[in-house]
Amino acid sequence: MSNQLNRQCVADHFQQDPRVIQAKRLILDALSAYQHQLAGPRPSISFLDTSCMALIEEAEKLRGRSLMLPYIGAGIGKGSLVELANGSVKYDFISGIGVHVLGHSHPALVVAAIDAALSDTIMQGNLQQNAEAVKLSRELCEIGNRKEARFTHCFLATSGAMANENALKIVYQQKSPANRILAFRGGFSGRTLALSQITDRPEYRHGLPETMAVDYVPFFDPDRPMKSTNEASQNLRDHLQRHPHKHAVMVFELIQGEGGAYPGSREFFITLMDILREHNVSIMIDEIQTFGRTTEPFAFQHFGLGEYVDVVTVGKLLQVCATLFTEKLNPSGPLLSQTFVGSTSAIFAARAILRELLSGNYFGEEGKILEFGNYFIDRLKSIQQRHPEVIAGPFGFGGMIAFTPFGGNQKKAAQLVKALFDDGVLCFIGGHKLSRVRFLIPYGAVCYEDIDAVTVIVEQTIRRLSNFRGER
Ligand SMILES: Cc1ncc(COP(=O)(O)O)c(C=O)c1O
Q1: Which of 171, 175, 223, 306 is positioned for an S-S bond with 149, CB 3.0–4.6 A?
Q2: Among 277, 197, 196, which residue's Cα sits nearest to residue 233?
Q3: Residue 337 forms beta bridges with which residues?
């Protein structure tokens, strides 16, 4: 025993202690037994309704605004099903806006959280990192470099916004004194003071000082692929000419998520990226939402853009956010540092999620992401064909899918999202000019039966709302 102790850290022995292993097994057994009770959507339990409503009201009071959805989780789920604090069970097809890719209460994530709880620190940071933080950073670089990209560095962060801020600081320093940014119309980058300037939603920066000079380029239009590519490239050249040597970076969101599931195309992106290269402007890909939602781990790999990328950010489904960048961009001085880069449980979970996604046949043309995405799209298409006057689409692909209800009317789309919530399906609103109902399906947990059940509810709810308004 003492010999063995000498070869391993005490922490290793603790984590491998038979009592710990037994405790984990007992927890998983108990979880599985209770998950059997979550067999499908169910309405709330009236006794719990009152206490849940009180919590929602308190949450709204504390936040000073209504909740996006009246969602307070109870703390357990099974696959795409989640139990709420009022005892209702719903299909979660928005997954915390793209976070719960393996659904709710996935055993691998429960184990990851237990392993993290056995570790000594709640949070990890620049002066308190354990081995997992380093391994996660290494793994992200390795995955990112599979197709021509050349990432040598990775900085973890606690939010997508922070990862994007870090990316911007890096490119600004490199391109100093260039101080302008290029971004797409309809794009979303986050909500910090800086990022709210890049996010193309004036209402998100209402009353805020202008901190950055942003020039917007129109995004790809699939109905006019050539024309929209020419328009965007001309527009980009105009900006570059108007402000010579002033642009540090262009931010690319390859599939606009908050904008309503709008994908661009390889030709479109390459046309713009070649122009940016000519003008020595850095290329930043914001994959906070797109990471893990296409045929490749990174959407830039799906679109074949690896050779162009200087810096990329990830977040959401990974639980930990990160900024990956090339050697050339490694900043000088103490530009990047944070007390917290992520919770220990988030870092353990990120590694477990990567393991599951990379070993579970998710990626590729035959992978589960496209397979479930296409199945869902087919089901939504049939609904659209039966109700062409009520919905348009579906749009998007893979793990990012949306449709436009009621001509894109924002109020009606929000009503539909609320009605779907009441009927047992969690989804969310998106869209820039036209409002869309969007889904970020937990493809790591979903099955065909879930998709069938969800689309039945979607159609029933649309029918109910349409009849209610006398639109059919
Ligand atoms: C493309 C994109 N960038 C950045 C963010 C900001 O991420 P976070 O909310 O984690 O700060 C989001 C969040 O929705 C996003 O979709």
Answers
A1: 306
A2: 277
A3: none
CB count in 10 Å sphere of residue 468: 11
Nearest 5°: the CA angle 367, 345, 153 is 70
Q: Name the pTM for this structure.
A: 0.96
Q: How far is the CA of 385 from the centre of ligand 1 (A)?
A: 33
CA-closest residue to ligand 1 atom 8:
160
Angle ∠(108,111,114) on CA atoms, nearest 5: 155
Of 349, 273, 260, 341, the closest CA to residue 305 belongs to 273
Closest to 212 measured CA to CA, from 225, 230, 193: 193
The fraction of the chain above a pLDDT of 90, given in percent, is 96
287: CA distance to ligand 1 center in Å?
9
- The domain 119-359 is placed in CATH, from the list 3.90.180.10, 3.90.480.20, 3.30.450.40, 3.40.640.10, at 3.40.640.10
Give the residue among 355, 380, 381 at the shortest CA–CA distance from 444: 355
Q: Which two tokens stand for residue 246?
A: 């002033």
User: Contact 330/167 with Cβ under 8 angstroms?
Assistant: no
CB 282 within 8 A of CB 310: yes
Q: Helix or strand or coil: residue 65?
A: coil
Domain 48-105+365-467: CATH superfamily is Aspartate Aminotransferase, domain 1 (3.90.1150.10)
How would DSSP label each residue in 328-381? GG---SS----S-SEEHHHHHHHHHHHHHHHHTT-SSTTSHHHHHHHHHHHHHH
253 CA: nearest ligand 1 atom: 1
Q: How far apart, in whole angstroms, are the C-alpha atoms of residue 344 and residue 320?
A: 10
Whether 86 shows a pLDDT value over 80: the answer reads yes
| Residue carrying structure tokens 């910090």 | 192
| pLDDT bucket at 3, cuts 50 / 70 / 90 | low
CA of 386 to the centre of ligand 1 (A): 35
**Band of pLDDT at residue 472, cut at 50, 70 and 90:** very low
CA atoms of 341 and 321, how far apart (whole Å): 8
Q: Which atom of ligand 1 is closest in space to residue 258's alpha carbon?
A: 16
Q: Ligand 1 in contact with 253 (CB < 6 A)?
A: yes
User: What mean pLDDT do residues 266-270 have?
Assistant: 98
Q: For the sheet containing 311-314, what is the strand order?
A: 151-157, 321-326, 311-314, 282-287, 247-252, 180-184, 213-217
Q: Looking at ligand 1, which atom is closest to the CA of residue 257?
A: 16
Indicate whether residue 287 lines ligand 1 (CB < 6 A): no
Compute the Cα dihedral for 365, 369, 373, 376 and give only its sign. positive
